[in-house]
Amino acid sequence: MGGAATAGAAIVVEGLGRRFGSFDAVREVSFGVGRGEIFGYLGANGAGKSTTIRILCGLLAPTAGRARVAGIDVRADPEGVKRRIGYMSQKFSLYPDLTVEENLDFFGGAYGLSGKALAQRIDALVAEVGLEAQRRVQTRSLPGGWQQRAALAGALLHDPEILFLDEPTAGVDPASRREFLALVRRRVRRGVTVFLTTHYMDEAEYCGRVGLMVDGRLATLGTPAELKARHVPGAFFAVRAGRRADLLAMLPGLDGVLAANPYGAGFRVRVDPARLSVEGLAARCRGVDAGAEIEPAGATLDDVFLQVVAGGRA
Amino acid sequence: MGEVVEPGVVLLAEGLEHSFGAVRALAGLSFRVAAGELYGLIGADGAGKTTALRILAGLMRPGRGTARIAGKDPADARSGVRELLGYMPQRYSLYGDLSVGENLRFFAELFCLDRRVFAERSERLLGITRLARFIDRPAEKLSGGMYKKLALACALLHRPEVLLLDEPTNGVDPVSRLDLWELLYGFVAEGMSVVVSTPYMDEAERCHRVGLLHGGRLLLEGAPERLVGGFEGVVLRVTGDLEKVERQLEGAGVIAVAPLGGSLRVVVGAEAAGPVEAELRGLGAEVERLRPNFEDLFLARAGGEGLPFDRAQGVRAEGAEEQRAQRGEG
Ligand SMILES: Nc1ncnc2c1ncn2[C@@H]1O[C@H](COP(=O)(O)OP(=O)(O)OP(=O)(O)O)[C@@H](O)[C@H]1O
Ligand SMILES: [Mg+2]
């Protein structure tokens, strides 16, 4: 927050806004990201995440406020910003008809790299993301997670100090997501700053701090632990249900239940421990579903998201 | 090939095989889905899910094997099967210059919905997708997830007997994902059969049954809780100096590591569990055993160390064919 917006900060955003016609996609957003931090930028569809990223990458001019990225004002010198950052877009990242190597060659050219220097960079990056054996394969025939690794290599070609990743793991299977995140974290250990959007809340747990956007505004900001304490206090239980619909009908009305949201085959239930004990919850659940099983569980960022974006639902 | 009609089975895949050049996308895939069943096709990227769904949607014929929807060949345009079938491909194109409302109306006309039915369904779908406020916005100006949700809303206007959804929730936010699943539960309660592929393991757990696809065939099949019940690995919650813990865990026998609140969730093979627990305690970490979930099972059985590349090629949904199908022009 304020503390990170110091001289050494990688990103400083003050009162940022972007209007399309009469619609405010981003309004009065302020935050700072420290060097070497993984900053998670979450929010519902249409909340303004990609719009913010495009502004910070020098691709879209803000209509209000200011942003400095790597010390450069995005409005004054967008080209300067582009040279210092790497960007993986939500929509486009690779030419599907080109091979991994051809894509990297092409992006390298765009960054003004060529010849031996570029060839060496490509060798090093292809090794870093584990695609040596796939260098000469058209990217369209790679599985999603591998394409994203190739795209990551593209974003790293000019050795940027800040990396903007807009939903880099959308549609990627759990094992490949972990591999991708491991690559990103390895870069962070070498001092790179990462600005990440994702709809996978487990990935947001890797972030030092998380900002949550609601309708263009930054609704809350903090470490994952701070956000949980702030927005979803209480005790969590995972309830496994046989009679799902019956439990869903009963739980929200139960005294002491603060929220009950479907998760996987059952629910996650948040209770006020002063009003409802585990035993009490278990007894009530078994009253409607003899097979219900209750297990203590910690708060997750999924819980925070549902609470802040949808008012807890239940 | 003899007709395979079995009471209660509305979708049948029998010995499906398919290769793209030298790459085998499907290698003997068989499964069947009953009326009112919600069936999940789960697998690593490139495991063959999209190829299977495209064959079942009648967009391509398998190299070998049989696909049947209500006893009919989905690739036979004259069989009348297209009326029974809905399909939403992974990559879906809408008319970018048409607004949200115009796109919905366009699809309603294709599906020949009468005005009252359209009004009712589109209102519900606009509510669930939270797009009602943006009804006049051109599709090309929507955010990535809003566009995906509009595509879903268009596909779900139609109430076919069998609905095939290829990764319908990629890019969709957690709130809308919950709402969409409630909608799917409503559909199957009314007797619709749904086959859905998804990279979200919490969604896999929500299916009545899942098939875990690996190398173009089923590795496991059954109710998710039953499959998880048979999982032999051990899941640990580890709390302590996480950097140290992670370094320690780089060794053998560890299947996966993920953050879990301020701790780590660690999946280990059964034999490695004892030694790993001892090592971690030796580091001063707190270790507690957790109940496995579907993601743990997936990571142990279908994920992890370098996917064999040959499963990958050619299985992506591409281009014009899909778009024609989704507009009902197939
Ligand atoms: N050129 C434009 N004209 C009008 N509205 C636009 C334009 N570009 C974006 N918007 C709107 O701005 C809002 C924010 O979009 P943005 O892409 O930033 O959302 P997001 O948070 O990235 O969502 P998602 O999770 O779906 O990717 C949306 O309502 C979108 O329709
Ligand atoms: Mg976006």
Describe the protein in words.
The complex is a heterodimer of chains A (314) and B (330). By secondary structure, chain A is of the alpha/beta class. Chain A has two domains: 214 residues, Rossmann fold (3-Layer(aba) Sandwich), CATH 3.40.50; 66 residues, 2-Layer Sandwich (Alpha-Beta Plaits), CATH 3.30.70.100. Chain A is 35% helix and 27% strand. In chain A, strands 6-7-8-3-9-10 form a six-stranded mixed beta sheet, sandwiched between helices. In chain A, strand 4 and strand 5 form a beta hairpin. In chain A, helix 4 packs across helix 5 and helix 8 packs across helix 11. The relative contact order of chain A is 0.13. The N terminus of chain A is likely disordered. Chain B is an alpha/beta fold and 330 residues long. Among the domains of chain B are: 145 residues, P-loop containing nucleotide triphosphate hydrolases (Rossmann fold, 3-Layer(aba) Sandwich), CATH 3.40.50.300; 60 residues, Alpha-Beta Plaits. Chain B has a six-stranded mixed beta sheet, sandwiched between helices. Chain B has a four-stranded antiparallel beta sheet with strand order 11-12-10-13, with helices on both faces. In chain B, helix 5 links the parallel strand 6 and strand 7. In chain B, helix 3 runs antiparallel to helix 4. Chain B is globular, with a radius of gyration of 22 Å. Chain B starts with 8 loop residues before the first strand and ends with a helix. The C terminus of chain B is likely disordered. The chains are: A alpha/beta (314), B alpha/beta (330). At the A-B interface, helix 5, helix 6, helix 8, strand 12 and helix 11 of A face helix 4, helix 5, helix 6, strand 11 and helix 10 of B. The structure holds adenosine-5'-triphosphate and magnesium ion. The site of magnesium ion has 4 residues of chain A, from helix 1.
